[in-house]
Design brief:
The structure is a single chain. Helices cover 48% and strands 23% of the residues. It folds into 5 domains: 60-79 and 252-363, Beta-Lactamase (2-Layer Sandwich); 101-248, PAS domain (Beta-Lactamase); 413-446; 461-694, Alpha-Beta Plaits; 708-797, no CATH class. The strands form 3 sheets. Strands 1, 2, 3, 4, 5, 6, 7, 8 and 9 form a 9-stranded antiparallel sheet that branches. Strands 15, 16, 17, 18, 19, 20, 21 and 22 form an 8-stranded mixed sheet that branches. The chain starts with 7 loop residues before the first helix and ends with a helix. The longest helix is centred in the N-terminal third of the chain and has 71 residues, at 28-98. By secondary structure, it is an alpha+beta fold. Keywords: Membrane, Transmembrane, Transmembrane helix. Residues 462-495 are annotated as: Disordered. InterPro entries: Nucleotide_cyclase. The chain crosses the membrane at residues 28-49, 370-394.
Length: 797
């Protein structure tokens, strides 16, 4: 029956089979771990960001509140220092104007004021035709201070100073100094009040801080006093003098330096708009410790340069401030300068709070560092937890994935369902899957073995690309040339190959992977095909056959599975199997002969059953044919035809295994050439008996010795077949014929006789050749195979 071409429906089925949906690229444990990690990481980052923002805002507010509270505290304290000065001075002026105090009781009036309020000077200074004055003041040097009462009477040209005990008011040394009287209306405070009253109409004011001899840097408050007579009788104001009190600024300096604490190394300074320093929490004096200093000259903590930078950024003025705080950088250090205005009566001072930005940010940095540390700790703990969770969740899934992979290719013996899971759902799945595997094991025995082989080989099908090695490319060219010769000599085979080529062309043009493992249609693949006849088994009774097959399959079945061979039984004494690959290679032949050796060794010689095996390797059309509901596995082409033919020859030549060297060399095996034959595709070749495998590196020495003997035994026998490689028509074959006859005689002595078909055929051929002329002998050698095929076919028939 002639094999028909592959129908177009099968090719279209290959092309139109829906592709498997893409997906499944993310491992479950990785997804769980990444999801939990992202959640933890994002949560920690958001918490840290929130904490950072809140901390930053809180610290800035705290800093602002601290500065504001400190400014209010300083303002209240300054008012506490200044308020008594103005009030007492105005009280002294009222008492004079009302006549409560007179020149005669001046000493007794002023002494309690000095004692109770701690002023450095208090008194009355007149300029009514003549200058006269009465006052307590501190004199001397910084290391040696004492109190004096100064009086310069009306019309006197001499002023007297009594050294007094300020606590009791007693005179210690009367009139110990006599000096030239001073003209009051030439003093700065007098001139200041004249101008100030003229400009503002106010009769009392603070003067600018000045350095007073003996009393240091002091602040003065002055108030006009009237002519007592005119004021009392006519309520007429005629300014005749000033009531004046001096307050030492040391009190303010001591307060600022000892009672104001800012963040870190921050400090505060109080200045006039002119830049003159009132005091501060740092040293605000110049080198001599007494001279009035300008803020720009202060060197302590580089305050002068910092305030000067602020002054420039504020538009070169202290009269008003453009911002509540400015960040100033001086000599690489950043400061935060917060200015405040202090106003009291006619005074306008500036309070500068200077903080190091690093000190302000230190709590925020510390808080941020702690938050970052805790965040990192939480992240590490979270990652460990996510790894553990991912492992706990994914471990059952990985286990199931592995088991389903075995089930997918029906390797049910590898399925292990003894594992249990603490998770209820997985535990239920394990139980159900265990039941399923048990049922599948029962069903598996009824499924043909080639089905499992296809399951194991369900991988992407594609021919070697053009850039494959030269060896593979050369082999493919040889196969194509061979197919071309076959097509010219056999029309039926040509039709099959051309149909298979259409499918192969599809495989060449595009690699594909069908979701249906058992796709229909032929594909061209490397194939080793074996046809086995168990000669003598059919004559046995059924009990023997059943027992024989039980032992036979127990021994042969495992290696068939290991080598992933597709086995198909035709009758009880005849079966065939094939091993496929992407292309023809030496390993393919080795695996095939290994299986065949196992078959031969499995048969007990006492059973009088002989294995007749035909082996052929090459490119073949392999695939499933039929429909989706009814199809079977098929190998088509010269390869299976030759294997079946070689199996018949093995029966006639009485050998176990026969193959050829058409597509693969037999260098790794001990072989014996049997004859020259012509296969069904009209190709003439030499067939070989496979005897054993040649020595390997790690073989035992006894095994090597035995193999060497076998190899030497058939080496000379192989030289006979050089006769068939002569192509020169003028070649003298007589010497070769004589040499071949001598070799056969030697082998006859070794045990070969006329019962050996190969020996008999060669002996008859050499006898004919030796009796023939030269040209006729050459012609016989060239046509020998044709005659042999015909004879064998006639014998077979």
């Amino acid at each position: 029956m002639q094999v028909q071409p592959v129908p177009e429906e099968s090719v279209s089925l290959l092309e139109s089979t829906p592709k498997r949906r893409k997906g499944g690229c993310i491992p479950l444990h990785a997804f769980v771990m990444i999801t939990i990690s992202v959640l933890i990481l994002s949560g920690c980052l958001l918490v840290w960001l929130s904490s950072f923002i809140v901390s930053s805002y809180s610290i800035q507010n705290l800093n602002t509140n601290l500065i504001d509270e400190s400014a209010q505290k300083i303002s209240r304290t300054l008012e506490g220092f200044l308020s008594p000065v103005g009030k007492i001075t105005r009280m002294m002026a009222r008492d004079w104007n009302k006549g409560v105090v007179t020149v005669s009781n001046m000493r007794d009036y002023l002494h309690p004021i000095i004692v109770e309020f701690g002023f450095t000077s208090a008194g009355f200074f007149f300029n009514d035709t003549y200058s006269y004055r009465y006052a307590f003041s501190v004199q001397g040097t910084v290391s040696s201070l004492f109190w004096v009462y100064v009086r310069q009477d009306y019309g006197q040209v001499i002023s007297y100073r009594d050294k007094v005990n300020i606590t009791t008011g007693d005179v210690i040394v009367p009139n110990f100094i006599k000096v030239v009287p001073q003209v009051v209306n030439t003093f700065d405070y007098w001139l200041f009040m004249v101008n100030y009253t003229r400009d503002t109409g106010s009769e009392g004011a603070f003067g600018d801080p000045s350095f007073a001899a003996g009393s240091g840097f002091a602040l003065t408050y002055t108030q006009w006093v009237y002519d007592q007579f005119l004021w009392k009788n006519q309520t007429k104001k005629r300014f005749i003098g000033l009531a004046k009190i001096n307050l030492s600024l040391d009190y303010i300096v001591q307060y600022l330096s000892s009672n104001i604490d800012l963040i870190g190394d921050g400090y505060v300074v109080v200045t006039l708009n002119s830049g003159i320093v009132i005091g501060g929490s740092i040293n605000t004096t110049v080198n001599d410790g007494t001279t009035v200093a300008n803020i720009f000259d202060i060197e302590t903590r580089k305050a002068g340069k910092t305030i000067k930078k602020f002054y420039e950024m504020n538009g070169n003025t202290f009269k008003n401030f453009s911002s509540k705080s400015l960040t100033v950088e001086s000599e690489g250090v950043k400061y935060i300068v917060s200015p405040f205005k202090f106003r009291y009566e006619n005074l306008e001072w500036n309070i500068f709070f200077v903080l190091y930005e690093s000190d302000v940010n230190a709590p925020m940095v510390m808080s941020s560092s702690i938050s970052v540390g805790m965040t990192v700790l939480i992240i590490i703990v979270g990652l460990v937890a996510s790894l553990l969770t991912g492992w706990l969740v994914a471990s059952p899934m990985r286990f199931l994935e592995k088991q389903f992979e075995f089930i997918r290719v029906m390797k049910l013996e590898n399925v292990n369902m003894t594992k249990s899971s603490p998770f209820r759902e997985f535990h239920s799945i394990y139980g159900n899957l265990n039941d399923t595997v048990m049922w599948l094991n029962e069903i598996k025995a009824f499924i043909p073995e080639h089905v499992f082989a296809q399951l194991n080989q369900s991988e992407e099908i594609s021919l070697p690309p053009p850039k494959e090695t030269k060896k593979h490319a050369k082999k493919e060219t040889e196969f194509e040339d061979m197919n071309a010769r076959q097509s010219r000599s056999n029309l039926g085979s040509s039709q099959v190959l051309s149909s298979g080529s259409a499918v192969s062309h599809l495989a060449r043009n595009s690699s594909f992977k069908s979701p249906s493992i058992f796709k229909t249609g032929y594909l061209k693949k490397g194939c080793a095909f074996v046809h086995v006849k168990l000669e003598g088994l059919s004559n046995k009774d059924t009990n023997f056959i059943s027992s024989f097959f039980e032992k036979f399959m127990s021994s042969v079945g495992p290696i068939i599975k290991v080598q992933q061979a597709n086995i198909q039984f035709i009758t009880c004494d005849e079966f065939e199997f094939s091993i496929t690959s992407k292309y023809v290679e030496g390993k393919l032949l080795e695996k095939t002969i290994e299986c065949c050796n196992k078959i031969v060794k499995t048969i007990d010689p006492n059973d009088r059953i002989q294995a007749r095996i035909g082996i052929c390797c090459g490119m073949a059309e392999v695939g499933n044919i039929g429909t989706k509901t009814a199809r079977f596995y098929s190998v088509h082409g010269d390869v299976p035809n030759c294997a079946r033919y070689y199996s018949d020859l093995a029966c006639q030549y009485n050998v176990n295994m026969i193959t050829d060297d058409k597509n693969l060399p037999l260098d790794n095996f001990i072989t014996r050439p049997l004859d020259r034959i012509q296969i069904p595709s009209n190709v003439v070749l030499t067939i070989y008996q496979i005897i054993a495998k040649k020595n390997q590196e790690n073989d035992e020495w006894l095994y090597e010795l035995e193999n060497n003997k076998l190899n030497d035994k058939y080496n000379e026998y192989s030289n006979i077949f050089k006769l068939f490689s002569i192509s020169d028509d003028n070649y003298d074959v007589a010497p070769l014929i004589n040499s071949a006859k001598e070799i056969l005689d030697q082998y006859k002595l070794k045990g070969l006789d006329e019962s050996d078909l190969s020996f008999s055929n060669l002996r008859n051929l050499l006898h004919v050749l030796s009796q023939s002329p030269k040209q006729e002998a050459l012609s016989i050698l060239q046509s020998y195979s044709n005659t042999l095929v015909k004879e064998m076919k006639s014998n077979k028939l």
